[in-house]
Design a protein that fits this description.
The protein is mainly α. The chain is built from four helices and no strands. It has helices at about 1-20, 25-40, 40-55, 55-75.
Length: about 80
Protein backbone atom coordinates (compact mmCIF):
# COMPACT_ATOMS: atom_id res chain seq x y z
CA UNK A 1 0.00 0.00 0.00
CA UNK A 2 2.88 2.36 0.75
CA UNK A 3 4.25 1.84 -2.76
CA UNK A 4 0.94 3.04 -4.21
CA UNK A 5 1.05 6.12 -1.98
CA UNK A 6 4.60 6.88 -3.07
CA UNK A 7 3.60 6.50 -6.71
CA UNK A 8 0.69 8.92 -6.15
CA UNK A 9 3.09 11.44 -4.63
CA UNK A 10 5.41 11.04 -7.61
CA UNK A 11 2.48 11.52 -10.01
CA UNK A 12 1.48 14.65 -8.08
CA UNK A 13 4.96 16.13 -8.47
CA UNK A 14 5.16 15.25 -12.17
CA UNK A 15 1.67 16.69 -12.79
CA UNK A 16 2.60 20.03 -11.25
CA UNK A 17 5.82 20.11 -13.29
CA UNK A 18 3.81 19.43 -16.47
CA UNK A 19 1.79 22.61 -15.75
CA UNK A 20 5.10 24.54 -16.09
CA UNK A 21 5.25 25.51 -12.43
CA UNK A 22 8.59 26.04 -10.65
CA UNK A 23 10.23 23.10 -8.96
CA UNK A 24 9.66 24.47 -5.46
CA UNK A 25 5.90 24.49 -6.06
CA UNK A 26 5.94 20.90 -7.27
CA UNK A 27 7.98 19.84 -4.24
CA UNK A 28 5.56 21.69 -1.95
CA UNK A 29 2.72 19.80 -3.64
CA UNK A 30 4.61 16.56 -3.00
CA UNK A 31 5.04 17.45 0.67
CA UNK A 32 1.34 18.30 0.94
CA UNK A 33 0.40 15.02 -0.75
CA UNK A 34 2.68 13.15 1.65
CA UNK A 35 1.04 14.79 4.65
CA UNK A 36 -2.43 13.94 3.37
CA UNK A 37 -1.77 10.39 2.15
CA UNK A 38 0.21 9.22 5.15
CA UNK A 39 -2.01 11.03 7.68
CA UNK A 40 0.77 13.06 9.29
CA UNK A 41 -0.25 15.79 11.70
CA UNK A 42 0.45 19.12 9.90
CA UNK A 43 2.02 20.67 12.99
CA UNK A 44 4.32 17.68 13.42
CA UNK A 45 5.27 17.87 9.74
CA UNK A 46 6.01 21.59 10.03
CA UNK A 47 8.13 20.98 13.11
CA UNK A 48 10.13 18.25 11.34
CA UNK A 49 10.65 20.45 8.27
CA UNK A 50 11.96 23.32 10.38
CA UNK A 51 14.21 21.07 12.45
CA UNK A 52 15.57 19.40 9.30
CA UNK A 53 16.20 22.69 7.55
CA UNK A 54 18.41 24.10 10.29
CA UNK A 55 20.58 21.09 10.98
CA UNK A 56 24.21 21.03 9.99
CA UNK A 57 23.79 18.47 7.17
CA UNK A 58 21.60 20.56 4.79
CA UNK A 59 24.08 23.42 4.89
CA UNK A 60 26.93 21.06 3.99
CA UNK A 61 24.88 19.63 1.13
CA UNK A 62 24.00 23.12 -0.15
CA UNK A 63 27.68 24.11 -0.03
CA UNK A 64 28.71 20.98 -1.93
CA UNK A 65 26.02 21.64 -4.53
CA UNK A 66 27.29 25.20 -5.03
CA UNK A 67 30.87 23.97 -5.38
CA UNK A 68 29.89 21.31 -7.92
CA UNK A 69 27.87 23.85 -9.90
CA UNK A 70 30.84 26.24 -9.95
CA UNK A 71 33.27 23.51 -11.02
CA UNK A 72 30.92 22.37 -13.77
CA UNK A 73 30.74 25.94 -15.08
CA UNK A 74 34.53 26.25 -15.05
CA UNK A 75 34.86 22.92 -16.83
CA UNK A 76 32.44 23.99 -19.58
CA UNK A 77 34.41 27.21 -20.11
CA UNK A 78 37.64 25.26 -20.46
CA UNK A 79 39.25 26.54 -17.26
CA UNK A 80 39.50 22.98 -15.88
CA UNK A 81 41.07 20.30 -18.10
Amino acid sequence: MDIIKLLLIFVCIITVIKFNKPLYISLAAGVAATIVLFGINPFTALELIVIGAFRKTPFILYWLFIQLHFCRGCWKKGAIY
